[in-house]
Amino acid sequence: MKRPVMMTLVGVMAVGAAVYFTTSSIFGNDATDDTNATNDEAIQVAENAAVSGDLGQAQSDGAEADALVSSSTGDSAEALETADEVSASGSSGVPPRDLSPIALWEHPLGDIVLGDESAPVTMIEYISLTCPACASFHQTTYDHLKETYVDTGKVRLILREFPLDQIALAAAMVVRCAPEDRRASVIDLILKSQSDWARDDTAFASLVDHLGQAGFSRARVKECLDDSDAQAGILETREAGSADFDVSSTPTFFINGEKVSGSLTVESLDETLGALLP
């Protein structure tokens, strides 16, 4: 099932402020170049002629050199135009890289990315770490996606935060504390174990215990939750997702710029990606 967005911008900011209260209950109240060669040749011809006093020859040779430069410049422009056409059409046999606005959007904290930068398909997943449908995708489809498409250079996967409640925000802040090359793994751990910790009012305390598997002590989690820059970056990402890209539930996927809402099965993922790959 998808979880609809329940917050306006004011509500999002309230979620940010509420992290303090969540953490204080756990940790205590203190928690917080050839064309250039041709140009050089033309200049040298003119200089040699001027030194010998043969200005007429210099003019003639200069005109010839100018023609060479013009021809070379024209060839370069034609080559660039051809390259642009190949890039736009994918006529090299490989689909062009995703240049949609959502793929080019710059995350204030830097995107969490898996896969080859030059992969023909870019897949973006907006996640809330307390979302049951997000957990279902990671439990049933994520490993297939990673092993079949990401690890083989076919798909570049971007994971973006879209917290729907204060626990999801706090969990996303902890993810940002992990080394860059481990953040996707921590997200996967949190989602795959969601049914073990996201049960009641002690959900975040239970999550902190589970995060020990990823090397997070309680003291380290407390430090992560004191990072106001991480909190602001995550909330900015959520607001941009909603306002600029019409994300209204999680998980929401964008595959080469096309929006796909709801959890994907292995079969639907294969069908969607199969239509985009050679």
Report helical residue fraction. 55-70%
CATH topology of the largest domain: Glutaredoxin
Cα shape: globular
Q: What order do the helices and strands follow?
A: EHHHHEEHHEHHHHHHEEEH
Mean pLDDT: 77
The rounded distance between the terminal residues' Cα atoms is: 32 Å
CATH superfamily of the largest domain: Glutaredoxin
Unreliable segments (pLDDT under 50, ≥5 consecutive)? 1-10, 29-92
Structure, explained:
Helices cover 59% and strands 10% of the residues. It is an alpha+beta fold. The protein has two domains: 3-31 and 96-274, Glutaredoxin (3-Layer(aba) Sandwich), CATH 3.40.30.10; 34-89. It has a five-stranded mixed sheet, sandwiched between helices. It has a two-stranded antiparallel ribbon with strand order 1-5. Strand 6 and strand 7 form a beta hairpin. It is globular, with a radius of gyration of 27 Å. The model is unreliable at 1-10 and 29-92 (pLDDT under 50).
